[in-house]
Amino acid sequence: MSDSSTLPPARLRPEAELARDALSAPVLARAARLARWAGPDTRVDAGGGLVEEQLPAAAEQLGLSGDDAAAYASEAWRIAVDTGLVDITDEEAGTVAPGEDLALLTGSPQDVLGVWLTALEAVLADASVPDLDDLVDAMAEGGEVDLSSLDWDPDAESEFLDGVLGNLYLLTVGEEGPGDAPVPLPALAASVIVPSDMGEPSNEVLEQVSDAMMRLDDQFRLLEPIGLVEYQPVDEALMADADEEPAAPVDEADVSRYGMVRLTPLGLYGLRARLLDAGFEAPAVGDLADKGADALLDGTAPFPPAAAHAETELWLAGRGPLDAARELLA
Fold first, then answer.
1. Which residues, other chains included, contact 71 with Cβ-Cβ below 8 Å and sequence gap of 6+?
2. Which of 66, 267, 299, 303 could serve as 308's disulfide partner, Cβ 3.0–4.6 Å?
3. Residues of the chain where predicted confidence (pLDDT) is lower than 50
């Protein structure tokens, strides 16, 4: 995807609606609750994480229980710190206080969405990191992570995920794509692995697609709680040993067993914001509503027909018939 080409326009929901979605996203909602819960007795470690002995209380505050409760609480706390909802006031003593940005969550929709975008970046960074168990196993004697033993390139992994999300964005906004319908995970993985000029994929390429699917399965599980996507994970029966009998009859033709992902309206907003930051031309329907007729005609020229029609309708809605006609005929 070239950053010099204009992407199809996105149809965004109103910012007030998107802000409500952001506030209800589990990751940000938990981070906000912990930021308001933190007090003079709250302590963090050298890395800014909540100290282990306070994780049970944090999990209880979030209404979490079970084996993963502490991990979810730890994640929520880290997001609170990363987004400025919590400030570390004394690194040596490990004391904290509510951050200035906590007030933004009760501010304008733009304020809320700004905090959510920061949280999204933190979650995306996490999604590009190998499993923690692999990191622990790869620790060298000096305490440094041996990246070569992980077969992990941070830049390549981030580029891979960005490419997948970019393709998901294109499938969502493009008129020939599925739109709001979920995309099969194998198709999404293949879109960044299989060369466009390849006829029948080789066994090696198919194996790469399968590996990419498993990586994406882990990543989309992380990205769903921030509100970026709706995700149906890969059926665990597919990952069982071939000798094991499935617990229940399975439909081999059911493509949804291999994972299905859909970009949410909030996710569409978030990916468009990231594309704009990266220098892409990523318009939204309605951008030209307050522009002149020349801008409307030039701007909609590369749009698909339905998007051009929607943009023109919004432009006309803001003008009287005679005024619109004069502008267009001038």
1. none
2. 303
3. 138-141, 242-243
The residue ranges of every structural domain in the chain are: 15-241+255-277, 293-329
Residue 307 to residue 57: CA distance in whole angstroms: 50
Place of tokens 């071939």: 242
What is the pTM for the complete model shown? 0.85
